[in-house]
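Thread: quick sanity check before group meeting

JM: Hey all, I'm pulling together slides for Thursday and realized we never actually wrote out the predicted structure for the chain we discussed last week. Dropping the sequence here so it's in one place. If anyone has concerns about the input, flag it before I start.
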Amino acid sequence: MPISWKPEPVMSDIMTVKDEWIDYNGHLNMAYYNVLLDLACDHVFGMLGLGPNYVKERNASFFTAEAHVCYVRELSAGMPVKVGLQLVDFDEKRAHFYEELYHAEEGWLSATSEQLCLHVDLGARKVAPWPEDILANIQSLADAQSSLPRPERAGRHIEIKKKA
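JM (edit): ok, ran it. Output follows.
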């Protein structure tokens, strides 16, 4: 049955920052921002038909080829968070998406992540086209989010600008 997507970022369930994820600076260690963002990604990809059963049944999956995280505001232990995911672009083998990590109660932005994923044939360990049904699911999400503006932080790169 096709998913009825809304014309908005797909929101994750609320998650909680765990005590053991806090580093010696007294805030969420950078690795665990990625854990939270990845859990939200897995949730959406599961909705697209790319969950654990997909790997078992089709011997295929998706791998992250590139990711860019921006840390905007610190998180502390016990804080509730949620993630919104927007599909930015896709083609026959790739998906480019953008996520925003928010404090779930106060609404402020904590971090962003932009990623490029590749569909992979696990038997050959090579990039392969999405199957037709998965491509249709991705197209459905793209259609639903087509009215959303491109995220302002998407496409960023790292550099130190030299003073003139």
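AS: nice. The first strand starts at residue 10 and ends at 11. Helices lie at 30-47, 52-58, 132-144.
JM: adding both to the slides.
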